[in-house]
Design goal:
Elements: H1 17-30, E1 31-33, H2 42-51, H3 60-69, E2 86-88, H4 94-100, H5 112-116, E3 119-122, H6 126-139, E4 143-148, E5 152-158, E6 165-166, H7 168-181, E7 188-191, E8 195-202, H8 203-216, E9 229-230
Parallel strand pairs: 3-4
Antiparallel strand pairs: 1-2, 4-5, 5-8, 6-9, 7-8
Helix pairs in contact: 1-3, 7-8
C-alpha cells in the first residue's frame, strides 16, 4: 500500500535532533517488548505523547520512524497505522483509571509524577529510580517513590533533593498516617524531618498513601511555617 509522506517514517527527519531525542526517549520509557500485539496503533499512541508536559505535535509517520529508532519493528509495515509487539512499562493503577474514566484504557503516561508528586516503579527498575532521583535534584523537588512488589510496596519520601526539611507539624501528620497503617511501628521510620519510609504497604493502598503524603507536604521550595516543608537547609 502506498502511503503519503505524512505517514512515512522518513518524515521523522523533519524534527530537530533534540525533538527526535525527546520522542524516542518517551517511547523507550513507556513501552517494553512483548509477545502479544498491543492493540493501540501508532496513530493512537502518538496522541499520548502529545498530551505529555514535554510533548508536541507529531505526524503518524514521525511517530512510526521514532518507534523504529527506539527498536520496535511493526507487525505489518504495509499498514498505514502500525501495530507493535509491545506493552506499557507500567499499567495505570485502578485509582488512576477511576480518575481518568473512559480515557484510561490503553493510556500511556510517563511524567505522571510531576502532576501527582510521586513515581510508581518496580523495585528492580534501578535506572528509573536513579533517573527520578536525578530529576528531583535537578528541579529541586521533593522525592516521593512508591516501590512496588508483588503484594506489598515500600514508600519513600525524601525532602533532601528539594533542599528543605519537613516542619514538625508535617512530621507529626506523617507519623499519624504511618501509625494507622502499621500501629506496631516496626515497618516505618522518620529521620531528621527529612526522610520518611514505610514498608509492607498493600499494593492496592500504596498510591492513596502516596497521595496523602503529597497533600501533607504540599508546599515545596519557598514554603514556610506549618504548611509542610520548612525553609531549613538539609
Amino acid at each position: 500500500m502506498k502511503v503519503d509522506y505524512g505517514n512515512s517514517p522518513e518524515c521523522l527527519n523533519d524534527l530537530s535532533a533534540g525533538q527526535q531525542a525527546v520522542l524516542i526517549r518517551w517511547i523507550r520509557d513507556v513501552l517494553v517488548p512483548a509477545e502479544r500485539v498491543y492493540k493501540p496503533n501508532s496513530y493512537i499512541i502518538k496522541h499520548d505523547f502529545e498530551r505529555e508536559s514535554e510533548g508536541f505535535y507529531v505526524t503518524n509517520g514521525m511517530f512510526k520512524g521514532a518507534m523504529l529508532k527506539a527498536g520496535f519493528a511493526p507487525v505489518n509495515p504495509r499498514e498505514v497505522n502500525w501495530q507493535f509487539r509491545v506493552k506499557p512499562t507500567w499499567e495505570l493503577s485502578a485509582w488512576e483509571r477511576r480518575r481518568l474514566g473512559i480515557y484510561s484504557r490503553f493510556r500511556l503516561m510517563r511524567d505522571r509524577w510531576r502532576g501527582k508528586g510521586y513515581v510508581v516503579t518496580m523495585r528492580n527498575q534501578c535506572r528509573r529510580i536513579v533517573e527520578h532521583d536525578a530529576a528531583c535534584r535537578r528541579e529541586q523537588r521533593l522525592k516521593l517513590l512508591v516501590l512496588r512488589g508483588a503484594q506489598c510496596a515500600e514508600i519513600v519520601l525524601d525532602t533532601d533533593p528539594a533542599g528543605y526539611r519537613l516542619t514538625d507539624t508535617a512530621t507529626i501528620e506523617i507519623a499519624a498516617l504511618f501509625d494507622r497503617l502499621n500501629p506496631s511501628g516496626r515497618n516505618w521510620s522518620i529521620t531528621k524531618n527529612c526522610l520518611a519510609v514505610i514498608r509492607r504497604v498493600p499494593v492496592d493502598q500504596a498510591e492513596e498513601v502516596a497521595a496523602a503524603l503529597v497533600k501533607i507536604a504540599a508546599c515545596l521550595v519557598g514554603a514556610t511555617g506549618d504548611s509542610g516543608v520548612a525553609m531549613v537547609p538539609t
